[in-house]
User: Fold these one by one.
Assistant:
Number 1:
Amino acid sequence: MTKTYQNYIDGAFVDSGSATVDVFNPATGAVLAKVPDSDASTVDAAVQAARRAQPAWEKKPAIERAGHLRRIAAKLREHRTELAGIIVREQGKIQQLAQVEVDFTADYMDYMAEWARRLEGEVITSDRVNEHIFLMRKPIGVVAGILPWNFPFFLIARKVAPALVTGNAIVIKPSEETPLNAFAFAELLAETDLPKGVFNLVSGLGRSTGEALVTHNDVGLITFTGSIATGSHIMQAAGRNLTRVNLELGGKAPAIVLADADLDIAAKAIYDSRVINTGQVCNCAERVYVERGAHEALVDRLAKHFKATQYGDPSARDDLHMGPLINQAGLDKVAAMVEQAKRDGATVVTGGQKADLGQGLHYEPTLIVDAREDMDIMRKEIFGPVLPIQVVDSLEEAIALSNDSEVGLTSSIFTRNINSAMQAVRELRFGETYINREHFEAMQGFHAGRRKSGIGGADGKHGLYEFTETHVVYLQTT
Ligand code: NAD
């Protein structure tokens, strides 16, 4: 019989109404489980639990809060293999990458715990005699964390760890596509001594559970990772209560390859950045601008990589580069974008259609040349294993085309010339630029997009402080 999960609210797994959502394995189509589609009253119970728990949590020394994060991290490591298996089954991630995600999640909890002794305010010079001005950083209160499906487990830590170490309580809503790993996280967390109500988990659809969370008056910060359309909607909904938002949205990362680049490094890094997680990553290379002199050699190298790509059901094999796409809509969108690109005059070098493996939502790894800046394939997020390439005649042209985008999350450049690399750094209007390496951020950096890629960011010191608000104290002594 299909298991039905229970929400985790106020330190207990509880029944929450009869509405449920089915969770599928995208590699087989099998229903894995049912999870609650939580309504507004359930969401309110979770928010109120967080609200009750938060003051005592805030009072604890930060180093004690950090201890809780470390104990959760240890639990995750104890169960690292089974956690990876859950991600493989519900998200379709290959086994190695799912394992990296679990291990990185545990490391991230530890990393944020390290900040406990480094949370600092400021002492500001006063204009008055014997006055002292202190700027303190304090928790916001109740944080709502709304997650996407593409790195579902890591995204829990990216919200929970900075929220908790700074003294907030949190309510998490995982994506309806991938909630099972979040329930596994809650089950392990429940085995630790974390005070009840500090972490709560409610599952459900965006229009029901998500909507109730983002319009709740007692939520102080909505930290959301997902699509631009949903981010824009959430920002409007948050406007009702003037709730703070932190939005990590979509990208359309350009990779610039100059004629002087090491093309073996460039091809491997761009390929890795494109097929990782079956192309379903916000910061992975979505479009290439290559200088004319390197075009043929780059395409040859990329084509070899694309043709050698192994894909299929990641539960069945551990030697794959890619699994399926997350759902039928995602697969149909990728297929439609490639068809449109062909009609617009682009040429498919390899791949170019849905892959029939008997089951699962697979798309052939696809390399496209003759792309132009007016094509949707060069302007809209594909979120699949499809790489379009456009020829340019100069670095300046590549930078101008890269910047001519409504999004600005990540970018990369491949060159042996330090001057060209630094010109790109000066002129690219993106939150991140990778030079001669694949697109993948570090936990101590700051992952933040420009334009419609988001508001605020995550990771490192700057990401941590997004979970705090300031309190300035003027102390007059005699
Ligand atoms: P999505 O916007 O469809 O869903 C994300 C979450 O929002 C889900 O939990 C969903 O249930 C919820 N949601 C939907 N409607 C809602 C509403 N009205 N109110 C509240 N919540 C609602 O995104 P997705 O398909 O899960 O994720 C893919 C997108 O995420 C891509 O565009 C990708 O680029 C982006 N992404 C960005 C980053 C980043 O760091 N910038 C990281 C990962 C993914």
Number 2:
Amino acid sequence: MIKAGVVGWPVDHSRSPLIHGYWLEQNAIAGSYEKLPVRPEDFAAFVGSLHDGGYAGCNVTIPHKEAAFSLADDVSEEARAVGAANLLWLENGRVKASNTDTFGFIESLNRVAPGWNDGAGSCFVLGAGGAARAIVFGLLQASTRPVVLANRTREKAQELAGRFDPKGARVEIIDWHQRQSAVANAGLVVNTTSLGMHGQPALEIDVSPARPDCVVADIVYSPLETPLLAQARSTGLRVVDGLWMLLYQAVPSFEAWFDVRPAVTPQLRKLVEDDLIADRERE
Ligand code: NAP
């Protein structure tokens, strides 16, 4: 029996048990995936007890991602780039850490918008929080196109850009209030802010001047169709919603613990979509 789980405080909202539970069943693996509520002051002890607790590893969510990165014996390039880990696993007695958001985002583009990287135009990223770090890192690796970055707090955009591109050769920062000016030359527009989430205002931007081959992605997944995506779709642009990233970011975790590369199937997507809708109806 291989055990894994998601550690957070709180952890009730996590969809990870649904995703990993589906894969355990589909692959007929004798394993379990639990929600593991752990207070910040207990997190280091929890990581130290993974082996004795019989865990192959765990996912890590708010507020433990930076601590997971610091406590691990070995960290992946992705975790180092982001400065935070959402995956821990044990290997030869060592605690390994990675960050799977980069993989999750790039795979979501590859799956839903194949050829997204073939056209011209910049990768225009809105937001400079934790998720944006993983995404900008991924885009700089996967694409040779310039990245344009706009964030409400310009200093955070500068900090993010300086992390990956200290000479300013690949990432251009523009002011938040000038974001509209970057649309016309974008081959990819990505919302990484929380704008557009249920209970939040929409992201104010008009994507209709974008190139016809521009792909518009939103990593917000509740609602699935944010006002940004609805607008992009009605303009005829290809869109990628945040549920794809959520599903793909789980793939490397499952593989690390259970040694099987799981598939993101339409059935899995429907399962999580229905759960998101049920959550909304409960509220
Ligand atoms: P975060 O670190 O807190 O960053 C939040 C970002 O949103 C910052 O850039 C912030 O700008 C911006 N923002 C917040 N309110 C704003 C407003 N009123 N106007 C303009 N900008 C605003 O959060 P995160 O972890 O990066 O997550 C961001 C979103 O992505 C959340 O909705 C989260 O659920 C989603 N997400 C999805 C996935 C997925 O798998 N699909 C993965 C991770 C995150 P400032 O810097 O100016 O505050």
